[in-house]
Amino acid sequence: MAPIKGSSKGAPTKGGAKSSKSSTPSSGSRVSKSTKPKGKRPPPKEVKAKARTAPENLKKKKKRVYTEAELDLPRLNAITPVGVVKPKGKKKGKTFVDDQEGMMTILAMVNAEKEGQIESKMMKARQLEEIREAKRKEAEARLAEKKNKLDAAKDSIRNKKKRKSDGGDNSTAVAGVAAKPSKGKRKSVAFA
Amino acid sequence: MRSLTEEETKTLFSKLAVYCGRSLNNLIAPPSDDGASAERHVFRLQGSRVFYLPLKLANLAVSVPRANLLSAGTMIGKFTKTGKFRVNITALDVIAPHARNRVWVKSNGEMPFLYGGNLVKAHIGRFSQDMTEHEGVIVLSADDKPLGFGVTARSTAETRKLEPTAIVVFRQADAGEWLRDEDTLFTT
User: Fold this and answer.
1) Which domain holds residue A31?
2) Contact B17 A95 (CB under 8 A)
3) CB contact under 8 A, B28 and A106
4) For chain A, which residues lie within 8 Å of any Cβ of chain B, measuring from their own Cβ?
């Protein structure tokens, strides 16, 4: 701290003779920074600093105007968080709904929404029910077909048996002699 | 005691619309009977509880300090801290006449329901047509007295095929709460 002050004091004494303008604190501070490492250079730099200071001051003033308008500030760096920005000129606090019309409009909106939901739910349920019904019918049909097939098979077996049994009865009924050739035939068939 | 904000009104109505049909309008604008204009009823918020009361009474209730006012009119339910709305058993008399779906319980099913049980199929006498599952329903006794309300577990079509022990209605509130929750009904 001490050396800075000393250099700043020293600068105006040297440059004071050349120009009376450079008495601003900003110019002094700039000079002090530059003069920190080496003390010989100040005179030429002082001139440059002075040249810069005049337009820089003007620029700074302009910048201050921009910051007030919050044009250059990134939104995330602002004091108020992005989500919490409240519109200006709006009434503070809650807005109550106490009139009948307002409540009716809200109720109508809610009712419409609810009925839409129920309607879609019903439609969905009906469609599902239809699908289920179709599946059930299909399963029933398949089961019936299977049963028919089984019955047919059973019948065919029964018929075969009947025929055989009928054939046997006939042979016995006609004559005991007739049975013998049939047996012989069977044997012949079996061997053939 | 204050009137509800827009958001609160919407939450309240969407909850009431679960149990009530279009005739919910009658709560706000009661139909004038015999030519005389019916008294207007309003919803008011006291603490987290919502009350339904005649406008005249609501205006009178303003003269009672908030801390001292326990109840005025009919309590409909309460707002939770997350902003949802819970309908209370006290609202039964308000919503029962406007119910969208109804279930009539046989006399043998009344006591199990009033003790806080769900409704099984064996206890149900009859029910409204065209109900879908998870829909609000008012439970009535065989002689048309409202006993409570709940949500359906199955749709009407499915219910018909169910076995007698299957749950048909999940209980949400029943008249037994008047006794069971006597101490906490208006305080917490």
Assistant:
1) 2-80
2) no
3) no
4) 94-98, 100, 102-104, 106-107, 109-111, 113-114, 118, 121-122, 125, 129
With tokens 């839409």, the residue in question is A116
Q: Which ipTM score applies to this complex?
A: 0.85
- Among A25, A60, A80, the domain-final residue is A80
Residue contact B132–A107, C-beta within 8 A: no
Closest CA to B114 of B185, B165, B154, B171: B171
Q: What is the pLDDT of residues A128-172, one digit of tens each?
A: 989 999 999 999 999 999 999 999 999 999 999 888 877 655 554
Q: Which of B2, B4, B13 sits opposite A107 (nearest CB)?
A: B13
Cβ atoms of B30 and B38 within 8 Å: the answer is yes
Residue A18: what pLDDT?
45
**Per-domain boundaries in chain B:** 2-95, 101-179
Alpha helices in chain B (DSSP H): 6-19, 25-28, 55-61, 92-95, 107-114, 156-161, 177-180
pTM for this model (two decimals): 0.65
B2-95 CATH fold: Nuclear Transport Factor 2; Chain: A, (3.10.450)
- The predicted-structure confidence for A163-177, as pLDDT tens digits, reads as follows 887 765 555 444 444
In the CATH hierarchy, which fold is given to the domain comprising B101-179?
2.30.130
Tell me which chain A residue has its CA closest to the CA of residue B158.
A129
As for how many domains chain A has, the answer is 2
